[in-house]
């Protein structure tokens, strides 16, 4: 597994955490755990390297949901819509993961671009 791929995934997810002011020590620890686990995963399935960044984002999203709630929240739909999250598309997380609004289905930003 190429370390650059893992560092890129970490940097992109960390940028999105920071953009939404969720880059707390707890969130960064969850990110480190996800990067470590996906590194092992990619070692087992080398063809899956293209999916690592999106899967790390999904792993952090799931872990944050269990501890602090939804992340990242959609800011595009305004107050008319109930609180809802963005999610990574495509489902497997790659090869070019983007954040999509779960209500409208609109692409909001590439991973790392919130």
Estimated structural class: mainly alpha
Note the gap between the termini: 27 Å
Helix tally equals: 3
Radius of gyration: 14 Å
Low-confidence segments, given as residue ranges, are none
Profile the largest sheet: 3 strands, antiparallel
Order of helices and strands: HHHEEE
Q: Widest sheet: strand order?
A: 1-2-3
Give the overall average pLDDT.
94
Shape: globular
Bin the helical content.
40-55%
Counting DSSP E segments of at least 2 residues, the number of strands comes to 3
Please indicate the percent range of residues in DSSP E strands (runs of 2 or more).
Answer: 5-15%
Could you explain the architecture of this structure?
This protein has about 110 residues and is mainly α. It contains 3 helices and 3 strands; from the N terminus they run αααβββ. The chain has a 3-stranded antiparallel sheet with strand order 1-2-3. A hairpin with an 8-residue loop joins strand 1 and strand 2. It is globular, with a radius of gyration of 14 Å. The two termini are about 25 Å apart.
Concise account of the structure shown:
The chain has 114 residues and is mainly alpha-helical. It is built from three helices and three strands. The chain has a three-stranded antiparallel beta sheet.
């Amino acid at each position: 597994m190429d370390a650059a791929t893992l560092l890129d995934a970490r940097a992109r997810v960390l940028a999105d955490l920071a953009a939404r002011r969720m880059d707390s020590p707890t969130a960064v620890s969850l990110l480190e755990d996800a990067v470590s686990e996906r590194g092992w995963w990619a070692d087992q399935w080398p063809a899956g390297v293209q999916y690592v960044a999106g899967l790390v984002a999904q792993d952090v999203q799931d872990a944050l949901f269990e501890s602090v709630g939804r992340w990242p929240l959609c800011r595009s739909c305004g107050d008319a819509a109930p609180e809802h999250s963005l999610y990574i598309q495509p489902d497997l997380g790659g090869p070019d993961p983007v954040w999509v609004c779960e209500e409208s289905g609109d692409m909001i930003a590439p991973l790392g671009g919130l």
